[in-house]
Specification:
Pfam family, one: ABC_tran
Helix content: 25-40%
Protein name: Putative ABC transport system ATP-binding protein
Organism: Granulicella rosea
GO molecular function, one term: ATP hydrolysis activity
Keywords: ATP-binding, Nucleotide-binding, Transport
CATH topology: Rossmann fold
Distance between the termini: 37 Å
Strand content: 25-35%
Strand order of the largest sheet: 8-9-10-5-11-12
Oligomer: single chain
Number of domains: 1
Bound molecules: adenosine-5'-triphosphate
Length: 260
């Protein structure tokens, strides 16, 4: 197992000397918001994904090259069917490419065994989806805690996570089940769940797709705060140019390629 996946070196949300919460990265145990001039945290080369449906090949990704520097907030826009979700799934280790390479933290996904890929999904990458995907029978607190329990690192909410919950504006909603929360609150619980293991990368697929303008603004502002204050690298898929405006950089996809 590589150093970056050593459980003793996994990213943590900790306090610095000024009492601020910061994220420590896996590979150098430096705060992620300290500029790191070496390799991009995500490096994609000549990525192809072809789906075969009957006799027809669909080239969902058609030669993607992409570098994402550590700590960047990147928006991925593009028309329906342009390959955004396919790219998202491959970057998160949820699906294999047909060819090409993806390196996360300098490690080639294709060279990882299934345990290492599971570790990647549990510790290095956090996911936020359009439909929140909270477990309906659990409270907000339990929805967040379960992720830490699975990783074998039970969470002390008060000590370790309270300020993050305050920042997300959901500290007083922790004992409610999802049905008692608004869509915006559910998405903020989903964001808390996605970052509770201190992942270096947050992948968000249409995180505001089900929200009204007011709640969209709240969620997007929070993502930007996470990026600026905690140094989280964020990749966000969106159809909405106003949402993309919250990011540092926007790439546009068309027909499985990056076109701008
Ligand atoms: N499992 C699959 N089998 C066959 N074709 C697929 C599969 N998944 C995606 N595709 C095709 O691959 C192409 C890219 O799809 P993808 O879902 O990545 O696009 P997208 O940009 O995320 O679209 P949307 O914005 O509508 O979610 C589309 O033509 C789609 O029909």
């Amino acid at each position: 197992m590589s150093e970056s996946l050593n459980p003793n070196l996994q990213p943590e949300i900790v306090r610095n000397e000024s009492g601020e919460h910061i994220v420590l990265s896996t590979d150098n145990l430096e705060p992620l918001h300290t500029p790191v001039v070496n390799a991009p945290i995500i490096q994609v080369r000549l990525l192809m994904k072809t789906y075969r449906t009957g006799e027809v090949d669909v080239h969902a990704l058609n030669g993607i090259d992409l570098d994402v520097p550590r700590g960047q907030f990147l928006a991925i826009v593009g028309t329906s069917g342009s390959g955004k979700s396919t790219l998202f799934n491959i970057l998160g280790g949820l699906a294999p490419p047909t060819s090409g390479t993806v390196k996360i933290n300098g490690r080639d996904l294709a060279m990882m065994n299934s345990t290492e890929r599971t570790d990647l999904r549990k510790r290095t990458v956090g996911f936020v989806f359009q439909k929140y995907n909270l477990l309906p029978t659990l409270t907000a607190r339990q929805n967040i805690q379960i992720v830490r329990d699975i990783a074998g690192r039970p969470l002390d909410f008060d000590d370790q996570f309270k300020e993050v919950l305050e920042m997300l504006g959901i500290a007083r909603r922790m004992d409610h089940k999802p049905r008692a929360l608004s869509g915006g609150e559910q998405q903020r619980v989903a964001i808390a769940r996605a970052i509770v293991n201190g992942p270096a990368i947050l992948l968000a697929d249409e995180p505001t797709g089900n929200l009204d303008t007011k709640n969209s603004d709240i969620v997007l502002t929070l993502l930007r705060d996470l990026n600026k204050r905690l140094g989280q690298t964020i990749l966000m898929i969106t159809h909405n140019p106003e949402a993309a405006a919250y990011a540092d950089r926007t790439i546009q996809m068309r027909d499985g390629k990056i076109v701008g």
